[in-house]
């Protein structure tokens, strides 16, 4: 679906995707219009928001090649890492739309609450913000999208913002599993804190800044997604733990659960960079390798005690994958 909006999103001429937000906005913004035709949606656009599931972003970006006006800035709102290539989504869009400026929008925002006008804040990142934040692509997009209740903050750390958004969805599945198993506030707080450690490690390895993880796209989004049943990722995790099927939980609707696809892409990246991400590995073992939840939990809880800031290497991750390999081989 493609949608366009007139003021208050004055320079935001079009958005591709965001079905939930669109459905709600149509009722609130009389000048919002929807179309399935990319050409008419993007004609004269200054800013184009891409809001499709991360694993389909490349195909959608490729479809837009040649359609976008030269001045259009492409804003990536999807959260994930491409599974086939391990590429961050900014790299994917750069490859498909090389002539366009790119910004990344991420942060703690359930679409329905944004559409309802509840105060929310996001990070918008573009690499040119390092040189001149006020004149950067991110600042331009922030001025166009910002309202009293939708407050964008500018960053130049595209990698840190993207890694945070991709990994938090995997961690939210873990939080859902913990909730579904009946664990309480202690477990969730431990998951969030150790999850942040995992985000920080991967982000730093890829060139992101550690402090970005303490901002809206890191702590903000992770806390939101790991603590609210509005999160599809969290609900998916709860379903796994309680033995309900995803179809049952989502009432048969096709729902984007980014953490399920990205459990693989995130852990593949981590393995490639020798970053220990035991919680994400555990989610992968449960969601993808279909290992029994109690076995995976035991492996996590039996990890050796260590310094809070230490990265121990890949021992447990590897033992989980060895188990997965054995289980798949029927051993
Ligand atoms: N919903 C939110 O609160 C929210 C907030 C921030 C970021 N995001 C991110 O936005 C992205 C999309 O999520 P969403 O909530 O908008 O999902 P959604 O299901 O509401 O919308 C996804 C859109 O992508 C389209 N789509 C689905 N499969 C497609 C395919 N194979 N090819 C082309 N188009 C396809 C759908 O028709 C729909 O318009 C995700 O990466 C998500 O993490 C969502
Ligand atoms: O419903 P989720 O779990 O996809 O989360 C939506 C947004 O990413 C929250 O910021």
UniProtKB/TrEMBL annotation:
Keyword Lipid biosynthesis applies: yes
Binding site for sn-glycerol 3-phosphate: 79, 107, 109, 168, 221, 231-233
Binding site for substrate: 79, 232-233
Sites where the protein binds NAD(+): 111, 232
EC number annotated for this UniProt entry: 1.1.1.94
Keywords: Cytoplasm, Lipid biosynthesis, Lipid metabolism, NAD, NADP, Nucleotide-binding, Oxidoreductase, Phospholipid biosynthesis, Phospholipid metabolism
Any one GO BP annotation for this protein: glycerol-3-phosphate catabolic process
Catalytic residues as annotated in Swiss-Prot or TrEMBL: 168 (proton acceptor)
Catalytic activity: sn-glycerol 3-phosphate + NADP(+) = dihydroxyacetone phosphate + NADPH + H(+); sn-glycerol 3-phosphate + NAD(+) = dihydroxyacetone phosphate + NADH + H(+)
Pathway given in the UniProt record: Membrane lipid metabolism; glycerophospholipid metabolism
Gene Ontology terms: cellular component: cytosol
Residues bound to NADPH: 79, 111, 232, 256, 258
GO MF annotations in UniProt: glycerol-3-phosphate dehydrogenase (NAD+) activity; glycerol-3-phosphate dehydrogenase (NADP+) activity; NAD binding
Enzyme class name: oxidoreductase
Domain called Glycerol-3-phosphate dehydrogenase NAD-dependent C-terminal: residue spans: 157-297
Name of one Pfam family that matches: NAD_Gly3P_dh_N
PROSITE patterns (UniProt xref): NAD_G3PDH
Family: Belongs to the NAD-dependent glycerol-3-phosphate dehydrogenase family.
Function: Catalyzes the reduction of the glycolytic intermediate dihydroxyacetone phosphate (DHAP) to sn-glycerol 3-phosphate (G3P), the key precursor for phospholipid synthesis.
UniProt-recorded name of the protein: Glycerol-3-phosphate dehydrogenase [NAD(P)+]
């Amino acid at each position: 679906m493609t949608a366009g909006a007139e003021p208050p999103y004055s320079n935001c001429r079009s958005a591709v995707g965001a079905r939930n937000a669109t459905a709600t906005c149509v009722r609130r913004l009389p000048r919002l219009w929807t179309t399935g035709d990319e050409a008419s949606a993007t004609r004269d656009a200054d800013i184009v928001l891409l809001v499709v599931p991360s694993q389909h972003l490349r195909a959608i970006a490729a479809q837009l090649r040649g359609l976008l006006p030269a001045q259009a800035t492409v804003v990536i709102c999807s959260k994930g890492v491409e599974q086939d290539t391990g590429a961050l989504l900014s790299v994917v869009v750069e490859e498909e739309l090389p002539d366009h400026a790119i910004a990344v929008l991420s942060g703690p925002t359930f679409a329905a609450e944004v559409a309802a006008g509840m105060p929310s804040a996001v990070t918008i990142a573009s690499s040119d913000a390092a040189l001149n934040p006020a004149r950067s692509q991110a600042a331009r997009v922030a001025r166009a999208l910002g309202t009293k209740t939708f407050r964008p903050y500018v960053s130049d750390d595209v990698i840190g913002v993207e890694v945070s958004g991709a990994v938090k969805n995997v961690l939210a599945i873990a939080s859902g599993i913990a909730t579904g198993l009946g664990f309480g506030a202690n477990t969730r707080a431990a998951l969030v804190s150790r999850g942040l450690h995992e985000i920080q490690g991967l982000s730093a390895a890829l060139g992101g800044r550690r402090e970005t993880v303490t901002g809206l796209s890191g702590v903000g989004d992770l806390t939101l997604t790991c603590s609210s049943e509005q999160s599809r990722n969290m609900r998916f995790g709860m379903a796994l733990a309680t033995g309900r099927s995803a179809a049952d939980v989502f009432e048969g609707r096709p729902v984007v659960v980014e953490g399920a696809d990205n459990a693989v892409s995130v852990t593949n990246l981590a393995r490639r960079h020798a970053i220990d991400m035991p919680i994400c590995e555990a989610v992968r073992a449960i969601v993808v390798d279909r290992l029994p939840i109690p076995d995976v939990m035991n492996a996590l809880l039996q990890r050796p005690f260590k310094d809070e800031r230490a990265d121990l290497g890949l021992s447990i991750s590897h033992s989980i994958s060895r188990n997965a390999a054995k289980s798949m081989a029927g051993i």
